[in-house]
UniProtKB/TrEMBL annotation:
GO molecular function list: metal ion binding; molybdate ion binding
Database matches in PANTHER family: MOLYBDATE-BINDING PERIPLASMIC PROTEIN (PTHR30632), TUNGSTATE_MOLYBDATE_CHROMATE-BINDING PROTEIN MODA (PTHR30632:SF14)
Underlying gene: modA
Residues annotated as binding molybdate: 65, 171
Keywords: Metal-binding, Molybdenum, Signal
Source organism of the structure: Muriicola jejuensis
Protein name listed in UniProt: Molybdate ABC transporter substrate-binding protein
Keyword Transferase in annotation: no
Biological processes, Gene Ontology terms: molybdate ion transport
Coiled coil: none
SUPFAM superfamilies in the cross-refs: Periplasmic binding protein-like II
Xref: InterPro entries: AvModA-like_subst-bd (IPR044084), ModA (IPR005950), ModA/WtpA (IPR050682)
Length: 257
């Protein structure tokens, strides 16, 4: 008798869980959101609020803006693209992959970051013998990597530190070099060091915004056939909502009020 009750309890639990998942899927399916790596922490927080409010499941796919752009051009089934470089979503619009032009939802900032307790990060320190490796994202495909390269040129340090540069495919990979102490210093996004996971780890200094071109972050809705998912439009609106802007600001982004 006891075994039978346990068996039925497990069956009822399984039915309950399956029904909940099905209801969530029927409410809108799963959104596939391609994002620049620097947005990972902020978007995770955005998605949590969005899923709770709209009961729509989301899958977040991070990567360098350039690599995600190439995947979308090849037909990757993404519903939205959040890029740290407007060039990529603008190109998708011109190619007819989106119905609307990209909209800027935030501006990012560049920082120098270290996990070494004996180092106080600064631009001047980049040329010292104390720093043998400097991490940054690949400037060819990652906007924050390009901003880092622009900053080095601005300060006249590009040639002096060329042999120290360690490039990751994206900001996320550059972050790994810093976190593992494989690089004494690294260029990353302000949103990285403002995230709950890393806020109290290491030390950082913001790079003078005049040293690099602005980092506007744009979003586009990817069309499937000739349509855009209604659920994707809901996330798009949420991104520009009061709640969405509050999350972005909490992670160090500047937004238009």
């Amino acid at each position: 008798m006891k075994t039978t009750l346990v068996k039925w309890s497990l069956i009822l639990l399984a039915v309950f869980l399956w029904t909940g998942c099905r209801e969530k899927q029927e409410a809108g399916g799963t959104l596939r959101i391609a994002i620049a790596s620097n947005l990972q922490y902020a978007v995770d927080s955005l998605v949590a609020g969005f899923e709770k409010e709209h009961n729509i499941a989301c899958e977040v796919i991070p990567g360098s803006s350039g690599k995600l752009f190439a995947q979308i051009r090849e037909g990757a089934p993404y519903d939205l693209f959040l890029s740290a470089d407007l060039t990529y979503p603008e190109s998708l619009f011109k190619a007819g992959s989106t119905l609307e032009k990209p909209e800027v939802f935030a501006f990012g900032s560049l920082v120098l970051w270290t996990m070494r307790p004996d180092i106080r990060p600064s631009v001047e320190l980049l040329v010292s013998d104390e720093v043998r490796h400097i991490a940054l994202a690949n400037p060819r495909i990652a906007p924050y990597g390009r901003a880092a390269q622009e900053a080095l040129e601005f300060y006249g340090l590009e040639e002096q530190v060329r042999g120290k540069l360690v490039m990751g495919e994206s900001v996320a990979q550059a972050n790994q070099f810093v976190q593992s102490a494989a690089a004494e210093l690294g260029f990353t996004s302000l949103s990285t060091v403002m995230s709950p996971e890393l806020r109290d780890r290491g030390s950082w200094v913001e790079v003078d915004p005049q040293a690099y071109n602005p980092l506007p972050h744009g979003v586009v809705l990817i069309q499937t056939g000739q349509a855009v998912k209604p659920e994707a439009r809901k996330f798009y609106r949420y991104l520009f909502s009061k709640e969405g802007k509050a999350v972005l600001k909490n992670f160090g982004y500047s937004v238009n009020e």
